[in-house]
Design a protein that fits this description.
Blueprint lengths: L5 H10 L5 H7 L6 E5 L7 H8 L5 E2 L6 E4 L4 H5 L2 H4 L3 E3 L2 H10 L6 E4 L6 H9 L5 E5 L3 H13 L5 E4 L6 H4 L4 E7 L21 H21 E11 L8 H10 L3 E4 L9 E3 L3 E2 L2 E2 L8 E3 L8 E8 L2
Parallel strand pairs: 5-6, 5-8, 6-7, 8-9
Antiparallel strand pairs: 1-3, 1-4, 2-3, 9-15, 10-15, 11-14, 12-13, 14-15
Helix pairs in contact: 6-7, 10-11
The protein binds S-adenosylmethionine.
S-adenosylmethionine (SAM) binds next to α7.
Amino acid sequence: MPPLPPAFSDVLDALIPSDLRPRVDASYTAPKAVVFRINPLRAPDAAAVLTALAPLRPEPVAGVEGVFRLPADDRDALTHHPMATDGSLYIQGVASMAAVWALQPQPGEEVLDLAAAPGGKTALIAASMANQGRLAAVEPVRARFFRLKANLQRLGVRNAQLYLKDGAQVGRLVPGRFDRVLLDAPCSSEAQFTRLDPTSWAHWSPKKVRASAALQSRLLRSAADALKPGGVLIYGTCSLSPEEDECVLDALLRERDDLWPEPLPWPVDLPALPGLTAWRQQPLHPDLTLARRVLPTEWTDAFFLCRLRKRG
Ligand SMILES: C[S@@+](CC[C@H](N)C(=O)[O-])C[C@H]1O[C@@H](n2cnc3c(N)ncnc32)[C@H](O)[C@@H]1O
């Protein structure tokens, strides 16, 4: 099996404590368990979905209702199952769901999803809002925008308005508008690396990490501007590189004093480390320790999450 790119392995060396390293390394060499959620917007009777899945026997994920996991070998059967194709269930990593659990969207609120396609998190936000209130979903890449639209339709989302737009413009256009903002930022996609398929890192390089960080900074400023006083912002990436995670947040926190990190609501016991408060000899904002770095394991994908509150 080919090794991971050396520059990425250096990041793992710096980040992952030695006792966790064998588990993290193993996650790059085997297919992962498949996690899914039952979608209440299409399937209010979860028990009926589980019955329809037989002979597949999903195991509940402790701490959250309606979330289950199956062995990696069942992935194809689940992906092509009629319950998946009709939107009764949705295959979604648990760390990706955690971004929405941390956002805590409520029925009746105004919520912004600033980087939305293909729409897994948008659909979970809509389900948490019981389709009540207003959900704005932004995606600038045309093909992905239409995929988002089709997915939300299939998943029974009715309270979303979709915008084919650069997210960096939104804060200027509608300042102080939203109760909650999710920025699941475009990133260098390090969470998708697998040694089973070296093309998974074909588009990755340290330069790509730097370019992603520059875009993420612009989007984060826009997200912060679009947030109402007192509102909640979740910043997430599926990248492990601190340049795309804590460093982007640190630059924002140095520049303005109306936002601060707060603890993440965290219903599931996920393998995660606290956010960094220093990187490559540079000190970072001390409250970034409240962020969480979900580790890549046999059932979780790498994910970085931080929750910010805006002064009321
Ligand atoms: C990590 S993905 C989002 C995944 C999505 N939240 C989900 O859970 O299905 C990031 C998305 O940001 C989009 N994107 C890229 N540049 C953007 C920009 N300037 N403004 C808003 N979104 C952007 C990408 O096309 C991509 O669809």
